[in-house]
Amino acid sequence: MTAVSAIARRELWSYFVTPVAYVFMVIFLVLAGLLTFYAGDFYDRGLADLQPFFDMHPWLYLVLVPAVTMSMWAEERASGTLELLFSLPASIAQAVLGKFLAAWGFIGICLVLTFPIWITVNYLGDPDNGVILAGYVGSWLMAGAFIAIGACMSACTRSQIVAFILTAALCFVLLLIGQPQVVDFFQDSLPPRLLGAMGQLSIARHANAIARGVLDLRDLVYFFATIVAWLAASVAMLDLKRTR
Amino acid sequence: MIEADRLTRCYGPLTAVDSLTLRAEPGQVLGLLGPNGAGKSTAMRMIAGFLTPTSGTARVCGHDVRKAPLSAKRALGYLPEGAPSYGEMTIREFLVFMIRVRGLERDVAFRRFDEVVSRLELEDVLDQTIGTLSKGLRRRVGLAQAILHDPPVLMLDEPTDGLDPNQKHSVRMLIDAMARERTILISTHLLEEVHALCNRVAIIANGRLLADATPAELEARSRYHGAVSFSAQGSGVSREMLARIPNVSMVEVDPLDGRVTVFPRAGLPILEDVQALLRTQNLEVSEIQLERGRLDEVFRQITTAPREAQA
Question: What ipTM, to 2 d.p.?
Answer without folding.
Answer: 0.88
